[in-house]
Amino acid sequence: MTEKIKLIDVSKCTGCRGCQLACKQWNQMPARQTKNRGTYQNPPDLQWNTWTLIRFQEVVDKTGTLKWLFRKDGCMHCTDSACVKVCPSGALHYTEFGTVGLIKEKCIGCKECVSACPFEIPRYDGLTDKIYKCDLCESRLRADLLPACVKACPTGALTFGDKDKMIKAAYKRAKELGGDASVYGDKFVDGTHVLYVLPEKVGVYDELPKHPRVPAAIIVWKDFLKPLSLLAAGGVLAGSFLHYIIHGPKTPDDDVNTKEGGA
To answer: What class has domain 4-204?
Structure first.
């Protein structure tokens, strides 16, 4: 199966929140009562029942011009995914599309993925004791359908397709925009399956890390120490089995002493 990528052209986003609503509808996520906090962004952050969020900012550029910035936020579906690395139950896993899926029935609510994710994406629900996040509409992909958010986007800000094609399209669009425009997502964590074309510098956007990476402690444990510990455990078992083959079962000391005294 060819790896897939969702491309988000921030320059085309009008903040309509059609993707936010489509995500909630397709995944049958319940809504909650919200409050007006003086910003277009609502709810204020990603939640266990909100996997897609349009973030809103007002910024002033170098010329003193006020700009409204809208950015669709959600799981980046990393190729080298910290959440998959730390998940002890296999609930978080890679799919054939290269995305990161979630099997809710396997989730044990340990919240290891919450602290490991460099993008702070997985959200915990205390009522169900489960983790929730975007799975890039895995069920729709298996039916050869577009993700719900992409299907709902009216401006073409969201597109979806094969990995190589989307990466080429992203760099082409960034070149067309010029200025500070750049592609975000293909240069870290072995690449993500959600790419941004950003018209502004990365540091301008809220909640978007400049250099996201898998925490060093996770790499050391999962990629080095854990395999070594498993290798050592295997060596102990192999040595024990070899000893049994050569010398047979160990005789208790008391039995040996009894036999010697009887002789």
So the answer is: alpha beta
